[in-house]
Amino acid sequence: MTEDQFWQIIERACQSDSRLQDEWHHRLVAELSQLAADDIVEWNHIFDRFVAAASTINLMAACYVMNTGAGDDGFYYFRCWLVGMGKDVYDRAMINPDSLANVALPWSSGIDAEAEIYGAAHDAWMRVSGQPDTAPYPARNETAELTGEDWDFDNDELMRDHLPKLSAFYDE
């Protein structure tokens, strides 16, 4: 499993469309179920690495403004969503979290930038391997230390300084 193959699976399943995020898990399970069990586990390892790498203070700030909060679980689901949005969105956000203003949905849409897709590989692996739910899954979770200099997300001026496009999008 290469990173290019990983992103191709994400693209087919998630289509970089937040409005489909409720379907992402099932679509990923279907895509991953076409692979060998070992490839599914490797896909999961790549997924975990990308989610862990996105544990930055400025992405947490983007989560905070986009989802009106950023607790531990919410920030994890946000990072899963970020991966689900595809390679281009992910790469741009890793360089500049404010680029997420280009894919943000208004609060009135009722759709948060969160996706619970972390278990898709496990579900596909069980399907492909024929293992029962109680079988040990051979994937690991990457630990994620929050990186970057901390700042006060409740300070509107700092938010506008760090994330001007996202701030303007959600101030309207």
What structural keywords apply?
0% strand, 172 residues, mainly alpha, 9 helices
Number of helices: 9
How much beta, percentage-wise? Answer: under 5%
Overall shape: it is: elongated
Which structural class is indicated by helix and strand composition?
mainly alpha
Largest sheet: none
Rounded to an integer in angstroms, the radius of gyration calculated over CA atoms is 16 Å
List segments where confidence is low: pLDDT < 50 over at least 5 consecutive residues: none
Tally of DSSP β-strands: 0
Summarize the structure.
With 172 residues, the protein is an all-alpha fold. The protein has helices spanning 3-14, 21-32, 37-53, 57-66, 72-84, 87-95, 120-129, 156-162, 164-171.
Can you put this structure into words, describing what you see?
The chain has 172 residues and is mostly helical. The chain is 57% helix and 0% strand. It contains nine helices and no strands. Helix 2 packs parallel to helix 7, helix 3 (37-53) crosses helix 5 and helix 3 runs antiparallel to helix 7.
Topology:
Blueprint: H1 3-14, H2 21-32, H3 37-53, H4 57-66, H5 72-84, H6 87-95, H7 120-129, H8 156-162, H9 164-171
